[in-house]
Amino acid sequence: MQSNSGLWVIRPFNTVFLVTFGVFLALLIVASFLLRNQSEKTRQTVLIAACLVTFVGFFVYKYYLSLDADFNVLTAERGGFNWWGELPLHLCNINMMLIPIAVWRKHKPLLAFCFFLAPLGAMMALAMPGVAFEGYSLLLPRNLGYYGTHFMIVIEGLAIVSFGLYRPSFRDLPRTVGTALLITFGVFLINLLLRRTGLNPKANYFFSVETEGNPLLEIFHRWIPVPFLYLLPSVLILGSYMGLITGGFALADALKKKKAQ
From the CB of residue 132, how many other CB atoms can be counted at a distance below 10 Å? Predict the structure, then answer.
């Protein structure tokens, strides 16, 4: 078993975590500054290229994870490594695939979905990593893959706005919530299929079948003890989160307009 002590040990919001996050945010700020006067096509190309690098990196990371004996031991309760359990079907992974499509097609509903949900999903994964990813060196292949992938998804989601490819609008919020619910239900059906066929008896993408001890989902499950349906109260949190962010942009636009008068 690998040591869980040392200079490079990463845990949610410890020094290593914050410094690493700071490096990725600095990368976003520098890229946004350098691209501010470039054409929209150039900005799109840079973001799509970054997403493709992340996508390739995701599968490289999963390959090394399949060879990681410690990972199998640490996750034995959930069956250890299983390719059917490592598909890109979590919220952050779905955004990883949708961002380049949304940017390429200039599809406003998808851009809205990815801007709001990609940073949220990836940050949730970073704040609540699995037992195999917390308390171990950042330099382990599995942690380089896990944290690198998720930090990239955070800044790629933010780049949709910082690159000037989308501006949040209140009119986009209902459709974004609807898209989130539709995707969540589709993933829930995939979970049921994987469980029914035995390909992955513990399939739980989006945590839509089991709460896996998540404190917030445990509360929702006590209210609505039915798979998938217990996720519905999350809509209120999602709506508030999107409304707050959009309100901030609306306020900034109003102040800018007032200053220009």
Answer: 21
The pTM for the full model equals 0.92
Is residue 125 within 8 A of residue 133, CB to CB? The reply is: no
Model confidence pLDDT, tens digit, residues 117-134 = 999 999 999 998 989 999
85 vs 46: CA distance, rounded Å: 31
Q: What are phi and psi of 175, to 5 degrees?
A: -70, -35
- Is residue 33 within 8 A of residue 46, CB to CB? The reply is no
Return the residue matching tokens 């209902």: 174
Q: Provide φ and ψ at 81, rounded to 5°.
A: -70, 135
d(C-alpha 94, C-alpha 57), whole Å: 15
Place of tokens 């800044």: 155
Short-list 152, 159, 157, 165, CA closest to 95: 157
Task: Give SS3 for 206.
Answer: helix
pLDDT digits 0-9 by tens, 22-51: 999 999 999 999 999 999 999 999 999 999
Tokens of 197: 């066929």
What's 85's DSSP letter? Answer: G
Residue 49 CB-half CA count within 13 A? 7
DSSP-assigned letters across all residues of 101-144: HHHHHT-HHHHHHHHHHHHHHHHHHHHS--TTTSSEETTSHHHH
pLDDT tier, 2 (very low <50, low <70, confident <90, very high otherwise) = low
